[in-house]
Amino acid sequence: MLFNRYRRGLFIASFLAAPVILYAIYVISPNIQAFYMAMTDWRGVSATPNFIGLENFQRVLGDSVFWKAVTHNLGLLVLLPAITIIIALFFAYLLNLGGSKGVSGIRGSTFYRVVFFFPQVLAVTIVAVLFQQVFRPDGSGMLNGPLMALGIEPVGFLSNSGIAFWSVLGVLVWQAVGFYVVLFSAGLAGIPRDVFEAAQIDGANRFTLFFRITLPLLWDTVQVAWVYLGILAMDAFAIVWVMTLQQGGPDWSTTVMAAEIYRNAFGYFRFGYASALGVVMFLFTVGFAILSLRLSRRERIEY
């Protein structure tokens, strides 16, 4: 019996060895190196960087541009998950329970799911270039063209520092919402229809059906969506770097932490300092994930 258990453990370990080794080499090792690099003044050219301790982290405390980027990430951290989840839940509920009887989807719901999911097929850079054209400040812009035709002054969606951040947020929501519509639809499909029918027999309206039945049963899925969207909000690099003016402008009004890490590493060749910024971003991201999972924890509802 003991020998069979040993052989089974050896068999499992033989399958796990290769992926664990690869993960250690390509994921864990670079992260450890980044922590070490954050305590050096390496500029990407010297073979042996100078160890300077915590000087880079002291410099981070006085970096006004980086802390402006942090505020933008925190704004996205609050707004992006909230807006995306609300919109996605609304459409998923409509597609799956919006029929005339209230327990079935609307006609053509499968087609609508494909349409909602379509932005996920596009590469992030394509989305950024696409919305550059949508936000163009002249008559060829998809939004400003009709406004100018009506005699209204064009809006600087990307050139006005007071509007640019909200334009970036809108693009991120547009890109993300389709995936979570499909995710919540899958969660709704796993809930027995008997639950909704019983609630309707007891006199539950659509409002009660959503907040008392649907949302509690989907809470685990919503929790996962919130964490994933929070991680997306902590990054948002590609959209900001490709779509906005001066890769985070105007006047740093759209820059995010990942953009400042890239700028310092490959623009100013301050790889040690960029690693320190990356460590700070890593700590923010891990802290958010732990805090979100703790605050949103609740008892699992069985059905």
UniProtKB/TrEMBL annotation:
Per the UniProt record, which residue ranges are transmembrane? 9-29, 74-95, 115-135, 163-183, 225-244, 271-293
**Which PROSITE patterns does the protein's record reference?**
ABC_TM1
Q: Please give a single GO biological process term from the UniProt record.
A: transmembrane transport
All residue ranges annotated as the ABC transmembrane type-1 domain in the record: 70-292
Membrane-topology annotation of the record:
Multi-pass membrane protein
One Pfam family, short name:
BPD_transp_1
Q: Where in the cell is it found?
A: Cell membrane
UniProt keywords, alphabetically = Cell membrane, Membrane, Transmembrane, Transmembrane helix, Transport
Per the record, its GO cellular-component terms are: plasma membrane
Q: From what superkingdom does this record's organism come?
A: Bacteria
Q: Which InterPro entries match?
A: ABC_transporter_permease (IPR051393), MetI-like (IPR000515), MetI-like_sf (IPR035906)
Family, according to the entry, reads as follows: Belongs to the binding-protein-dependent transport system permease family.
PANTHER family found in the cross-reference section: ABC TRANSPORTER PERMEASE PROTEIN, DIACETYLCHITOBIOSE UPTAKE SYSTEM PERMEASE PROTEIN NGCF
Name of the molecule in the record: N-acetylglucosamine transport system permease protein
| UniProt organism field | Nonomuraea thailandensis
